[in-house]
């Protein structure tokens, strides 16, 4: 299951295609729910192998008064789902928005301290990350696409830090054995992030009059390893 919150049809469809491609799944193997358009239906986790959560224009750390009714609904639905996911240690991988949603659920400090501009950063696995099954075959340090306003400034005892970077100390963590969140985008390739830069030019990530800056930033280094964890996740949990 892919839980998505992107209102733009083209970007939402591209995100779905990227998860399909890099997880190695067919359309009949990956269902999608667009939470920005309708309430989350009742999910029977016994009928699912795992859950992906895509990135989002929503920020958990936004002042409550500034959040739209849709954002508040999505956050409430995600929190209720995570109650069951964490209790059952059900396979879950949240990309970018996963840090905000899972982190907030677990009591992490989510704020604007470690936001990163759109670009490529070097991510380093911790000892726990290097030993984690989801990072099998990945180098200890790898480049990844990022671009976010908020991040986890600290993690609670329930979370295990798996990856970090110089500009953002929490790039990936795990709760239990099977519940994961990444701050970077494992689903993105260069074409995908190029499309998002254009789609979100007016969302405050960068000046809309200076698109050439983030476009140049994502081209500085080649990103080749992060998508591996999507296929590993699917292969590990598919049933």
From TrEMBL:
The keyword ATP-binding does not apply. Keywords: Glutamine amidotransferase. Residues 45-193 form the Glutamine amidotransferase domain. The keyword Cytoplasm does not apply. InterPro entries: ChyE-like, Class_I_gatase-like, GATASE. This is Glutamine amidotransferase. Gene3D superfamilies: 3.40.50.880. The lineage of its organism: Bacteria, Bacillati, Actinomycetota, Actinomycetes, Micrococcales. PANTHER family: GLUTAMINE AMIDOTRANSFERASE YLR126C-RELATED.
């Amino acid at each position: 299951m892919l839980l998505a919150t992107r209102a733009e049809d083209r970007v939402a469809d591209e995100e779905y295609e990227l998860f399909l491609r890099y997880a190695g799944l067919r359309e009949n193997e990956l269902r999608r729910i667009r939470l920005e358009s309708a309430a989350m239906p009742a999910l029977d986790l016994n009928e699912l192998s795992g859950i992906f959560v895509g990135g989002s224009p929503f920020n958990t750390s936004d002042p409550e008064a500034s959040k739209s009714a849709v954002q508040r609904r999505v956050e409430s639905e995600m929190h209720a789902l995570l109650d069951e996911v964490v209790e059952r240690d059900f396979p879950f991988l949240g990309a970018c928005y996963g840090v905000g949603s899972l982190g907030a659920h677990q009591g992490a400090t989510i704020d604007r301290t470690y936001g990163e501009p759109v670009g490529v950063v070097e991510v380093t696995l911790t000892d726990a990350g290097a030993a984690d099954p989801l990072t099998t075959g990945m180098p200890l340090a790898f480049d990844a696409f990022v671009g976010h306003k908020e991040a986890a400034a600290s993690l609670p005892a329930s979370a295990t830090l798996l990856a970090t970077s110089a500009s953002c100390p929490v790039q990936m963590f795990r709760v239990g054995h099977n519940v994961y969140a990444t701050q970077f985008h494992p689903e993105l390739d260069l074409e995908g992030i190029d499309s998002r830069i254009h789609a979100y030019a007016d969302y405050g990530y960068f000046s809309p009059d200076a698109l050439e800056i983030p476009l140049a930033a994502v081209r500085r280094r080649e990103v080749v390893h992060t998508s591996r964890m999507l296929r590993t996740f699917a292969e590990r949990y598919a049933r």
